[in-house]
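Annex B.
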Amino acid sequence: MALRQISTRHRIGYFGSVCMLIAATALSGCSTTKKPLTTGSIPKLSKPVETMNAPELARAADTIGASYERNPKDRGTGLAYANILMMTGRNTQALAVMQQVAIAHPADREVLSAFGKAQAAAGQLEQALTTIGRAQTPDRPDWRLYSAEGAVLDQLGRSSEARSRYRMALDLKPNDPTILSNLGMSYVLGGDLRTAETYLKSASQQPGADSRVRQNLALVVGLQGRFPEAERIARQELDPQQADANVAYLRSMMSQQNSWKQLAAKDGKSDKSTN
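Pilus assembly protein TadD: predicted structure tokens.
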């Protein structure tokens, strides 16, 4: 579709722009592959990190960071700390944390998955693929690892391989909203906004779909010029401060003449050529 002739370097930049909307909602990124952490060593926070604004996230990072410093080998604390560091854009530090956790827990699949995610966030994409591959086992395949692998492959511009991994994940976890959302965002990267919207709408209707999915849907709807509808979606289930931040970000992207509007124009031309 519209972006197929764009280089891998530009695809990665485009992917980063897409992820920024999710960062504005205080969430952890395009690939939502983590499992809940229940270890008692993690400090209790005032509310889930997924609902925190930027100042709250900064305070939470300080709280969990202090616990991590006391015991850097603790699995649960390390995973939680690396995740919140990535949510606040401190990707290099998150990678350093996950390196320590992976050394202490070299055979832990969830640790390896999180390590791969941190590598990808820090720009070490090929290393991330290797790490995620080490975590995956043919006799006990993990859908989260397939989805995480797909997200990295998308960043490398290998969209057909990425979508294959998402579909493998869906074979193991049918209709999972996070996988459907990642698959939809893969089509955003390919410039196929209509297909992307189809998957994201399906994701948003599944039980367990969270605000990350709806913010991705808002982005795709907005990119197609339906901004009032996108704004309604972006404001769902968020407090006013978070909703205003998301809407402001949507508006800023819609005003970027050299990226989003060119994408829409190219997509429109592609549609006409197929009629």
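The two ends are 14 Å apart (CA to CA). DSSP finds 14 helices and no strands in the chain. Further annotation is deferred to the next reporting cycle.
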